[in-house]
Amino acid sequence: MPTETFEFQVEARQLLQLMIHSVYSNKDVFLRELVSNASDALDKLRLAALRDDTLDADVSDLHIELETDQDARTLTVRDNGIGMSYDEVGRLIGTIANSGTAAFLRELREAQDGAGTEGLIGQFGVGFYSGFMVADEVTLLTRRAGERQGTRWTSRGEGTYTLEKVDDAPQGTSVTLHLKPADPDNQLHDYTSVWKIKEIVKRYSDFITWPIRLVGQNGQNGEKGDDGEASAPETLNSMKALWARSREEVSEEEYHELYKHIGHDWREPLETIQLQAEGTFEYQALLFVPSHAPHDLFNQNFRRGLQLYVKRVFIMDDCEELLPPYLRFVKGVVDAQDLSLNVSREILQQDRHIRMMQRRLTKKVLSSVKSMMTDDAERYATFWREFGAVVKEGLITDPDNRDALLAVTSFATTHGDDGTVTLKQYVERMPDGQDDIYYITGESRESIDNSPHMEAFRERGIEVLLLTDPVDEVWVDAVGEFEGKALRSIAKGEIDLGAREDEQSEGEREKQAEDYAGLLGWMREQLSEDVKEVRLSTRLTVSPACLVADSSDLTPALENMYRAMGQEVPRTRRILELNPDHALVKGLNEAYGEREDRSDLSDTAELLYALAVLAEGGRPKDPARFVRLMADRMERTL
Ligand SMILES: Nc1ncnc2c1ncn2[C@@H]1O[C@H](COP(=O)(O)OP(=O)(O)OP(=O)(O)O)[C@@H](O)[C@H]1O
C-alpha cells in the first residue's frame, strides 16, 4: 500500500513543538493520556456493540495492554476498542479539533514570558500528542471495529506525518512510542522499566474500569515463569468504580485522578461531591467543581454535562439533562441502576427520573457550596470568583432554587473588611430607618466607585452592593426583593435617604425648587432628544449632574446587551439630575435668570449633560462637538 505524507495543521504543529520541547515538567502524564484515550475507545465499542448487534466486532475481552521492550526502547499502549478509520485518523490525529485547545494555543502565543505556561497548559488535555514528550517517533496502528482495513500513522512530530493502509491490523488501536533516551534530571524516566510503568498506572489510572495489563516485558528479568515462558499478564489497576465506593475507602488523590480523566484538566478540583441515592430509583454520583473556570464557559457551544453510566456501562459524555445550565462547570459521573442501556438523548429529555435526578443533584451541589461558604471561606471565595457569574444565571432561570442560590451568592460592597457580603449579612447590618437594599450595576468596580450616584450614599455611610457581572443587570429585576426588603438601584428612580441634621428644611427645599423651576423646564426643552426630565438631585454632593433611570427603564448596559444580541431596543431617555449646591449649576441658574439671549447657555446645558454621561463611563453622543465646546470654554478661562 502506498504511504502518503501529510502536513500537520498549524495548531497541531505548535502543540507538538510544545510537547517536544516539553513545557510540562511532569512527563509521566503521557501514559495517563494514552490510557485515557484507550479507555474511551473501549467504552465506545461496548456501547456501539450494545446498540447494534450486527456490528462485526469482538467484545469478549476488552482491555488495555502495555508492552515494554527494553532492547528496542519502545513502549506500546494497545486497546481492542472502537479504533479509527483511515479518514478518522487523518481528521482526529493530524488536526486539533478541540476549539478550546486552539484558543489555548493562541493564549500561549500571547503569553510573553515562558513563566506560567505550565499553568496554561494545565487547562487543556493535550491528549495523544503528549507522547512526543517522551518519544522521538510515534507509530499508531488502528482498525475500526467492523471494518476490514487498518491504518498506520507515523510521525517524528516535526512537520509531517505519514498514513498507510494496512491489511493485517487487529481491531482497536496500538500506539508505539520510540522512546527518547532516559534523562532523569529532566524528569524523563525510563519508560521501559516495569516498576515505573506500574507506578504510573497505579497513580494515574487505577480507577479505569477496564483491565490494564502488562505484557511481553522484553529485556527485563524477573517477570517470566519458571520455565522461561511469559507468565499470565498482570493486571495493574484495581478497576474500582470510585463513585460506587464509600468516601472513607477512597483517597483524595484517587478522586483527583478521576477528575482529571473526565474533566480533561490537569489541576486538582476545588471540591468533590458524592451522592448515593437509594430507593426506587438508585444511582450514584460523583461530582467535581473545578478550581478554574474554563475559558469558554460563556461560549454558546460550551460542552457541558456529566458522564452518564448505566450499571457501570459508559453511556454518554456531556449529558446535559443532569444539571441545569447555570451549573455547567460541574464535571462528574452519574451511574444509574434503573435506566435502559439504550437510553437516548430524546428519552432523557422526557424522563421523569432524570428530572428528579437533576433536582436532587442541583440541591446537592448548592448545599455543598453552602458548606464551603461556612467551613472554608477562602475556598468559597475561589469558587465565587471563578463561577459566581454563571451561578447567578440561576437566579433568573431557576425560581425553585432561588432561596438556596441567594444563600450562596455574595457581592462586592462598599462596606465590610473582606469586601464581600451576602444579602442576609447586608440586611442584618442595615441601620434603622433604611428600608431597601441598595445596589449599583456597572462594568467595573472602578467605574462604579467613582460614579456620581454614589456620592450621597458615601457621604452618609450607607452600604451599597457593587454589581459588575453582565447578568447582574437582569437577575436583580427578576428577584426584586430579599426578606421583604426591595432591591433598589441607586441609579434608578427618586432616592429619599431621609433628612440629615445639617440639611435644609422642607421650606428651604420648596423655595429652592421654585428658584430652579424656570431653568429645569428650559433645559428639558433644550435636551429633549436625550432626556425626559430635568430635576434637582438628592444624591449628588460633589458632581454637578448625573443621569438616572426610571425604575422601569432599561439601564444603558442592558440596552447595549440587547443590541449586541441583535434585538431592536428603543433608546431610553433618562432623567438628568442637577446638584443645586454646585457652583456651576448655581451660576447657570443665575445666568438663565439674567440673560435674554440664551444661545450660549444652551451649549452649557449640552455640556452638562455630556459630563453626566462621561461620569458614568459613557461616551458623549458627538465627541468632536463635545471637545470643541469644552475647548472654547477652557480658552475663555485663560
Ligand atoms: N486509542 C484510541 N482509539 C480510538 N480513538 C482514539 C484513540 N486515541 C485517540 N483517539 C481519537 O483521537 C481523538 C483525539 O485524541 P486526543 O487525545 O488528541 O484528544 P482527546 O482525547 O479528544 O481530548 P483530550 O486529550 O483533551 O481528552 C480522540 O478524541 C479520539 O476520537
- Can you identify the CATH class of the largest domain? Alpha Beta
Looking at CATH, the homologous superfamily of the largest domain is Histidine kinase-like ATPase, C-terminal domain
Number of helices: 21
Calculate Rg over CA atoms: 33 Å
The helix-and-strand class reads alpha+beta
Distance between the termini: 88 Å
Strand order of the largest sheet: 1-6-5-4-7-3-2-8-9
Q: Give the number of DSSP strands.
A: 23
Level of helix content?
25-40%
Characterize the biggest β-sheet.
9 strands, mixed
**Low-confidence runs (pLDDT<50, min 5 residues)?**
221-226
**What are the bound molecules?**
adenosine-5'-triphosphate
Shape: elongated
Strand content of the residues, in percent? 15-25%
Q: Provide the residue-averaged pLDDT.
A: 88
CATH fold node name of the largest domain: Heat Shock Protein 90
Number of domains: 4
- The CATH architecture classification of the largest domain is 2-Layer Sandwich
Notes on the structure:
The chain is of the alpha+beta class and 638 residues long. The protein folds into 4 domains: 3-238, Histidine kinase-like ATPase, C-terminal domain (Heat Shock Protein 90), CATH 3.30.565; 244-382, Ribosomal Protein S5, domain 2 (2-Layer Sandwich); 411-489, 3-Layer(aba) Sandwich (Rossmann fold); 511-637, Up-down Bundle (Four Helix Bundle (Hemerythrin (Met), subunit A)). The protein contains 21 helices and 23 strands. A 9-stranded mixed sheet has the order 1-6-5-4-7-3-2-8-9, covered by helices on one side. β15 (411-413) and β16 form a beta hairpin. The radius of gyration is 33 Å and the shape is elongated. 35% of the residues are buried. Residues 33, 37-38, 41, 79, 81-84, 92-93, 98, 125, 127-128, 173, 264 line the site of adenosine-5'-triphosphate (ATP). Molecular chaperone. Has ATPase activity. It comes from Streptomyces calvus. ATP binds at residues 33, 37, 79, 84, 99-100, 123-128, 173, 345. Residues 1-345 are annotated as: A. Its main location: cytoplasm.
